[in-house]
Amino acid sequence: MINRINNLRSSFDSLGVDAIFLTSRTSHRYFAGFDNEDGALLITKKNAYAFEDFRYIEVAEKQLTGTYNVVMLKGKRSEWLGNILSSENICTLGFEDLHMSVSGYKRLCDDITVKTVPIGDTVNKIREVKTPDEIEKMKKAQKLTDMAFEHILGILSTDITENDVASELEYFMRKNGAEDKSFETISISAEKTSLPHGVPACTKIKKGFFTMDFGATVDGYHSDMTRTVSIGKADDEMKKLYNTVLEAQLAALEYLRAGVKCSDADKVARDIIYKDYKGYFGHSLGHSVGLEVHEMPALSPNMDKILVPGNIVTVEPGIYIPSKYGVRIEDMVLILENEIENFTKSPKNLIEI
């Protein structure tokens, strides 16, 4: 954790702050190593403080002592904070404006008199490049996701519901070691596959395309994968649409490496899709993944950021024909100097069930 704390400290001068107060759940997990949605961290130039309540104090004292001064909260957090800021002669305090509500900011200022400075996406930028430890956790999460896909192929039929599939995927991943699902599982059939974020229902699976977008969480780190299969035989039009998406994804995967501009990667896939399906690919090619499912940088047509080794991104082109059907294929990959490492091992050929 000390390296992460020091990375944050290195931003103090450019931000013009003497300390940073971290209140988001994600920042607590990243800089303290365990999940507490109500915890807070104060990083100064010389010290680090963890504010924890009774529910988490035992964990905090075991895991953080030596790196953090652990403070068990009794009363208002802002009072404790104000006392520490005064004792360390802090004049300017950075805060997580992207995560803090207006009421939260007012509570922060109740008992402090120092100048406050929004830190914007400072923490997000630190988290963009994943460490070897983070990478291994995400590999494990994706392995569980691949295992769940292989498992679900054996039970897919028109005799079960969309909700059955979502529940089975999530149960399988938890049973085999996942901390949780990554997000609300998408498992939708037939005309609902035209909805990129369609919601599964207690209705039996229909013949046609069936899309599953799901992932596992391992020690806070997420995976994200989409596969579209055909329930019953696919006709020629369905095969053309599916193969177009697959061609676009394979081309983008081949193109990706360090030094590539995010918008250029999106264009590689979009140009292929738009030859015959212009206007039917309405989202970005992909996004970064980590402690959150959607992080930066994104493989967006509007993002000029250059990819660097250690970025982990999804590659998920899709085609969606309203009220008819849709196809999406998604892998999660690690950006390396001259290539990528694809964590996703599930087959991508059109599977007909």
Topology:
Elements: H1 2-9, H2 12-15, E1 19-22, H3 25-32, E2 40-44, E3 48-52, H4 57-64, E4 69-72, H5 77-87, E5 92-95, H6 102-108, E6 115-118, H7 122-127, H8 132-153, H9 162-175, E7 180-181, E8 186-189, E9 208-214, E10 216-218, E11 221-222, E12 225-231, H10 236-255, H11 262-277, E13 286-288, E14 295-299, E15 312-315, E16 318-321, E17 325-328, E18 331-335, E19 340-342
Parallel strand pairs: 1-5, 3-4, 5-6
Antiparallel strand pairs: 1-2, 2-3, 7-10, 8-9, 9-12, 10-11, 13-14, 15-18, 16-17, 18-19
Helix pairs in contact: 8-9, 10-11
Description:
- With 353 residues, the protein is an alpha+beta fold.
- It folds into 2 domains: 2-126, Creatine Amidinohydrolase, Chain A, domain 1 (3-Layer(aba) Sandwich); 132-342, Creatinase/methionine aminopeptidase superfamily (Creatine Amidinohydrolase, Alpha-Beta Complex).
- Helix content is 35%, strand content 22%.
- The chain is built from 11 helices and 19 strands.
- It has helices at 2-9, 12-15, 25-32, 57-64, 77-87, 102-108, 122-127, 132-153, 162-175, 236-255, 262-277, and strands at 19-22, 40-44, 48-52, 69-72, 92-95, 115-118, 180-181, 186-189, 208-214, 216-218, 221-222, 225-231, 286-288, 295-299, 312-315, 318-321, 325-328, 331-335, 340-342.
- A 6-stranded mixed beta sheet has the order 4-3-2-1-5-6, covered by helices on one side.
- Helix 10 (236-255) runs antiparallel to helix 11.
- It is elongated and about 75 Å long.
- It starts with a helix and ends in an 11-residue tail after the last strand.
- The relative contact order is 0.11.
- The model has no long low-confidence stretch (mean pLDDT 96).
